[in-house]
Amino acid sequence: MSTTHGYAARDSQSSLAPFEFQRRSLRECDVQIDVLYCGVCHSDLHQARNEWNNTIYPVVPGHEIVGRVAQVGPGVTRYKSGDLVGVGCLVDSCRTCASCAEGLEQYCENGFVLTYNGADRQSGEMTFGGYSTRIVVDEAFVLRVPDKLDPAGAAPLLCAGITTYSPLRQWGAGPGKKVGIVGLGGLGHMGVKLARAMGAHVVLFTTSPSKVEDAKRLGAHEVVISKDPAQMQAHANSFDFLLNTVAAQHDLNPFIELLKRDATMTLVGAPGHDHPSPQVFNLIFKRRRLAGSLIGGIAETQEMLDFCGEHGITSDIEVIPMQKINEAYERMLKSDVKYRFVIDLDSLRQ
Question: Which residues are registered as beta bridge partners of 65?
């Protein structure tokens, strides 16, 4: 057991506050990681405030983790002390079902184990996440972070990066494809960067004219103000793929109408309440598809990290000390961040 310092929410109404707990002793294939940086995902806020009605307290959020290996169990073969590594949203799965066998642990049919607010498959104890100075994870769920990437900027790749990379790859974003990214936040800005690096023609949709120049800086070829019907109509029936990253409730119909025949819009934003149901005829008459996607498996997450290493892609971040996490949550609710907060865990070691 090792004493670990972190920040936790004790109930849905309280602010996150200092929390000391014990990490488990190393099992055969465990890797102990000293956490350097942890991204702040909007789902952290949902969980801390029990907005999805599934939080078990106390909860230590954080699933966009980059750190260095401190110790390894006797059976570890992939990592050694000093390696730069990452941990994303999952720390275990059944490893035997059809989805796990295909490297799709995020769709584990017997239930994957979340990095925090999940039940350990051996002990049954609740998992605690990356808002902490160290974490212990089975090597099968540890990722190698390319050394050429800035560790702080790489942290959000472990959730925001793979959440956008996986559907872009699944639905064939690449040269000759017109790809739309809906929303320019933590997910959307990664979608723009990745789709551009894949070779697609990238169009960013936003309700905010103030984001036009930034979207182009990030790699969008075009920017459409989605509340302008004329701008939307100019792109009707023209997209091969749309990646919708918006978590707020909104009308999906204007975006579905932008799809070509047989094209797909995939939802990755996680709203507190469902979007209004789209008009069925918008789907029927052009055989359009409305889909969803959840992060990625371990192999695909490593593929994404390697792709980002090759193309020099990291998240646009604002680094904060752990002590400012509650302020960051309030700013995040106001979209006052470009585009991801990342916690410097050295702030808990001082």
Answer: 38, 87
In CATH, what number does 2-159+316-348 get?
Answer: 3.90.180.10
The class (CATH top level) of 161-292 is alpha beta
CATH 3.40.50.720 domain residues, the chain: 161-292
Q: Where in the chain is the domain with CATH 3.90.180.10?
A: 2-159+316-348
Q: What averages of pLDDT result for each successive group of 10 residues across the chain (350 residues)?
A: 94 97 97 98 94 95 98 98 98 98 97 97 97 98 97 98 98 98 97 98 96 97 98 98 95 97 96 90 97 98 98 98 98 93 94
Identify any residues that bridge with 178 across adjacent strands, giving them in sequence order.
201
Distance CA 70, CA 60 (A): 21
Alpha-carbon distance of 107 to 78, in angstroms, equals 24
As given in the structure block, the two tokens for residue 308 are: 């980002």
